[in-house]
Write a structure and sequence with these properties.
There is one protein chain. It is built from 13 helices and five strands. A five-stranded parallel beta sheet has the order 2-1-3-4-5, with helices on both faces. The mean pLDDT is about 90. With about 270 residues, the chain is of the alpha/beta class. The protein has a single domain, classed as Rossmann fold (3-Layer(aba) Sandwich), CATH 3.40.50.1110. Helix 7 runs parallel beside helix 9 and helix 9 packs parallel to helix 11. Helix content is about 50%, strand content about 10%.
């Protein structure tokens, strides 16, 4: 009886072990370790950013909705008023004109962050011509170089500059073309701001703009020379992210812009 009972016990133990092994076999294997994500390249980050703006590009390419209501309530210039429109991208959009030009209520900001000259052409009538300014200060081109709305050649950017000036001239608006600002790579925030804007392209467009203004009766506003360092980059203390001026940057730009506007309103530029 003892031997028989032992055999029974051994048999039962074997069943338990077999059942346990089957259970282990049915369990899911431990999850594999996820591969380390590869950092995105600059071009991939640009593409990702462009995808985030797909709704804008498809539904309101020129972003006419941004200033439509403000324009609707803006009265026509008073008799004798010399209205000035600052027209551009984020560098203009982020400029607090009331701080840089205290008391000059005739200075109107119509900048929109991220825009290219192709987008600015779409809204030039609404945001400039229809406001009846005497002068428009245009600061544009850096986002074209970066490819914000897709690849565009220097000749394509120059064609857009030309069309904007022709539209202004047809409506007796004096044009001040601002140089494209230099960029820098001195801070961690700079990153793509610098790599997407090769300095040689900035130099080429500024040289073209200067010649264009000289040949076509417009005024060239040279921010570049006042803000560039000995390496050809934007001075580090003028922009935290390598592109957008901080207060120190705008402090340099303001008197240059004011002097150009005074000149444009005089008989020197017709």
């Amino acid at each position: 009886m003892v031997l028989k009972s032992g055999r029974v016990v051994l048999f039962q133990l074997g069943l338990v072990l077999l059942s346990g092994m089957r259970g282990l076999a049915q369990q899911s294997p431990p999850p594999a370790t996820a591969p380390q994500a590869r950092p995105l390249t600059g071009s991939e980050r640009l593409q990702q950013w462009r995808q985030s703006r797909r709704s804008i590009y498809m539904n309101d390419f020129g972003e006419l909705s941004r200033y439509r209501d403000a324009n609707a309530v803006l009265p026509a210039p008073a008799p004798g008023e010399s209205r000035v429109v600052f027209f551009g991208d984020s560098i203009t959009d982020g400029w607090h004109l009331d701080e840089s030009f205290p008391g000059k209520l005739n200075y109107i900001n119509r900048g929109i962050g991220g825009q290219t000259t192709s987008q600015m052409l779409v809204r030039f009538r609404q945001d400039v011509i229809d406001l009846e300014p005497k002068v428009v200060v245009i600061l544009a081109g850096t986002n074209d170089i970066a490819g914000n709305t897709g690849p565009i050649s220097l000749a394509g950017i120059e064609a857009n500059y030309t069309t904007l000036a022709e539209l202004a001239r047809q409506h007796h608006i004096k044009v001040i073309y601002s140089s494209i600002l230099p960029v820098h790579e001195y801070t961690p925030q700079a990153g793509d701001m610098f790599t997407q804007r090769p300095p040689e392209k900035i130099l080429a467009l500024n040289a073209w703009l200067k010649d264009f203004c000289s040949a076509n009766g417009s005024l060239y506003l040279d921010y570049f020379s006042a803000m560039v360092d000995d390496r050809g980059f934007l001075k580090k203390d003028l922009a935290d992210d390598g592109l957008h001026p901080n207060k120190a940057g705008y402090k340099i730009m303001a008197p240059l812009a004011d002097a150009a506007i005074t000149t444009a309103l005089s008989a020197e530029v017709k």
